[in-house]
Amino acid sequence: MQYVFWHPYLMFHQAAYIRELANIPGNTVHWCVEEELPSNYRVLGYPVPDTGKVKLYVAPTATEITELAGLPGSVQVFFGLRGFALPQTAFNASFGAPVKRFLMTENRYEPGLRLFPRWLAYTWDALRYRRHLKGVFCIGHSGRYGGARFFTACGYPRERIVPFVHVVDSTPVQHSPVKRDHKEILYVGQLIVRKRVDLLLTAFSQLDVPSARLRIIGKGEEEQRLKALATQLGISERVSYSQGMPNAEIVAAMAAADVLVLPSKFDGWGAVVNEALMVGTPVICSDRCGASDVIENGRNGYVFEAGNAKALLQRLRSFCFEFHWDRAALRAQESVRLGGSAAAARFAVEAQRLSSVSAQSALDN
Q1: Confidence grade of residue 145 (pLDDT, cut at 50, 70, 90)
Q2: What pLDDT digit, counting tens, does each position of 41-100 carry?
Q3: Where residue 140 sits, what CATH number does that domain have?
Q4: SS3 at position 30
C-alpha cells in the first residue's frame, strides 16, 4: 500500500507511527511537508524527528505535489484543511485521481466565544469537502467536549469519524528511585491563560499534604501573575519554576516526578501526557484535553472536570492517598500501548476499513 501524508512540518508527535507504517512489508510511505521544523520548536529544543524509511519531501515542487497527490490507489492523509497551505493545495490537486482521501485533525471543540464561529467555518468545510473524503481521523475524539461531537455537529457522519492519537517517540531516561520525603507534582507547558495553571495553584494550595511540592516547567505571559498568585495563596516556598530546557531534560524531569498535571481549559491533545505515561509517571488532566482519551481513572491517572478547582483538588488527594502503581510496569505498558507500532497498526486497519465502504456510503450521504 502507498500512503502519502501532507503536513505543515515534520510533526514530532506524528513521526513515530508514520515511520513504523513504512516498516510494514509492502508499504511505501511518502511524507510531504512545508518545512522540517519551525524555529519556535527548535528554540524549545525539539529535534528533527527520525523518519526512517519514509520518503521525505520538504517544500515539494508543484510537479511533485501533482504526482504524489494522484498516486493511483494510494491513501492520502491531509493534516488539517484550514490554515495549512500544503495540505489544502495537495487536497485540491488530488481531485479526480483514483485515491482514498482522509482528513486528520485535532479536536476543535473549544467552548467559549470562539466555538460558534469555529463551528460555522468547519461546517462550511464539511459541506465542501466531505464528499471527497473516506473518513476523518480525530485526535481527541471522545467525551462531552470531544471531536466526535464537534465534527458530527459540523456535518460529518459519526460512523466515519474514528479516534486517533498523537504519538511521541520514547525518550531513553535512566530512572533511579528518587529519595525524598514529599510528593512532587509537575506541570509542563506554556504559561498562558488557556493552560489554567492558576487552577492548579489554587487546588495545590488546598491540598492537605504540606510536604507536597509543585514544579512548573515552562514560560509565557502569565509567569509573573502566576508567581504573584502563589505568593497570595501562601505556597510560594513550595512552588519552583524552570523556564525551559531541552526536551530530553524535560522528559527526565517527568520521570523523576510523582505525577504530571495538565489542567487546560482546552487542548486539542497534549503530547506531554504521552511523554509522562511512557516514562511511567501517572497523569491528571482535564476532560477538555484530547489526551484524556488515554487516561483510565485509577490505573494510569485521573481525569477531572475542566475549570473545577474542587474536582482537581479531589483528584490530587486521590493520587496522594489512594493511588498505587509500579513505575516500571506502567512505563512498559504505556510505551507499547501509545507507541508508534501500535498506532501504525490501528491506522492501517481503520484506513482499510473506511476505504472498503462503497461510494454510496461516502461522507456526504
Answers
A1: confident
A2: 877 677 889 999 999 999 999 999 999 999 999 999 999 888 899 999 999 999 999 999
A3: 3.40.50
A4: strand
CB 129 within 8 A of CB 81: yes
Would residue 178 count as lying in a domain? Answer: no
CA distance 21 to 343: 9
Q: Do 42 and 15 lie in a common domain?
A: yes
Q: How many angstroms separate the CA atoms of 150 and 286, rounded?
A: 18
Cα–Cα distance for residue pair 284/224, rounded to 1 Å: 24
- Count of residues in the chain: 365
Q: Is the pLDDT of residue 359 over 60?
A: no
Cell numbers 495553571 correspond to 197
Give bridge partners of residue 105 from the DSSP assignment. 138
Cα angle at 205 between 199 and 206, to 5 degrees?
Answer: 100
Q: What phi, psi does 277 have (nearest 5°)?
A: -60, -35
**Burial class of residue 308, CB neighbours in 10 A (0-12, 13-18, 19+):** middle
Where helices occur in the chain by DSSP H, the ranges are 15-23, 39-43, 62-69, 85-93, 115-129, 147-154, 197-205, 223-232, 247-256, 271-277, 309-321, 327-337, 340-355
Q: Are residues 135 and 247 in the same domain?
A: no
Contacts of 232 (CB under 8 A, 6+ apart): none
CB-CB neighbours of 338 under 10 Å:
23
- How far from 333 is each of 190, 218, 339, CA to CA, in Å? 28, 28, 10
Q: pTM score, two decimals? A: 0.91
Instruction: Judge if 213 and 89 occupy the same domain.
Output: no
Cell of 314: 479531589
Same domain for 154 and 10, yes or no, is: yes
Give 201: exposed, middle or buried? Use CB within 10 Å, 0-12, 13-18, 19+.
Answer: buried
Residue 241, in any domain of the structure? yes
Q: In percent, how much of the chain has pLDDT > 70?
A: 96
Q: Note whether residue 177 is domain-resident.
A: no
* Across 318-331, average pLDDT: 95
The better pLDDT of the pair 152, 245 is held by 152
pLDDT band at 177 (very low <50, low <70, confident <90, very high): low
